[in-house]
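Re: [help] complex structure
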Amino acid sequence: MKLVVAIVHNEDAGALVDALLAREYRATRLHSSGGFLKQSNTTVMVGVDDEQVDLVLGLVNETCHPRTQIVNPMPPIMEPGEFFMPYPLEVEVGGATVFVLPVERFERL
Ligand code: 2BA
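Output below.
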């Protein structure tokens, strides 16, 4: 068994969970936020048999789309008389960041 952990954009999370549930996968949705952008995202956890992993990754791929987001860089520490012009940067986020972890034991008690 494997645990698929997918970090996805909030706007894609509903479609991903709906697609998983429609195929009778069980999923848990966690509110999370990215360390770099410090913006809210969603972590979806799905426990599946090994042979189902590629099907789940296919659903992630179908439902989660890359987006560009604008980041305003932090100004550096300035010496007197120095000048910093903040240029917003474009960063591509997702479709999804996915980890597939081995599950030692799974119980529903
Ligand atoms: P964030 O950490 O907010 O990162 C958002 C996007 O910013 C990243 O998109 C990437 O394009 C860029 N980025 C992140 N760290 C960077 C850095 N040090 N320098 C330059 N650009 C950087 P994604 O790679 O698609 O990641 C989307 C979200 O997935 C991340 O949000 C984070 O929540 C999670 N994530 C990505 N890689 C991870 C990892 N290795 N471990 C744990 N979580 C991860």
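The radius of gyration is 18 Å.
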